Amino acid sequence: MSRTALTLRRVLRIIQRHFILNLRIIAKDLRINQQIRSSNVRLIGAEGEQLGVVTLQKALQLAEEAGLDLAEVAPNAEPPVCKILDYGKYQYHQRKVDSKHKRQQKKNELKGMRLGFKTGDHDLETKAKHARKFLEDGNSVKLTLIFKGREAMYKDLALAKMMKFYEAVQDLATMESNAKKQGNSLIMILTPKS
Fold first, then answer.
1. Quick one: which of 73, 162, 183, 186 has the fewest CB in 10 Å?
2. 86: exposed, middle or buried (Cβ count in 10 Å: 0-12, 13-18, 19+)
């Protein structure tokens, strides 16, 4: 094959991908006005009032009189549910809601903090300050205390150290799970208070 044929194939693949992605984006949006396929629809007015089952032509006429759009909000219902609304405002509101959800999803991260069996009091306070920042930002904290060698025999001392850490952040955190032993470590999860 020649170079131009290969380049042409690559360009065609890129165009196909772009076209498919745009179809997916359009599929998320509502059908409006002339895109609605059903002959009868259940109509909801601009103020949210139920107007009953009407023909599509009547619904389009009512939307046009109000100076708004007719949008199919529940296409799988029988008959499909349509609402008279300002489609531009609807899209703006949806983008706002989507961005808010994305911001909230980012905040729910699980941050890890590692302690040693021989971690000193000052180091424990410093780690507690870091954990407080994580909790204030809305993140959960996974506290791990790692045993080395025969330190695992002194589980009660390790639990006391973890409880001391918890008491330092108790005003901001709730204990989602008590300290549990997993292999050669002790794990506790702290979540921010609502």
1. 183
2. middle
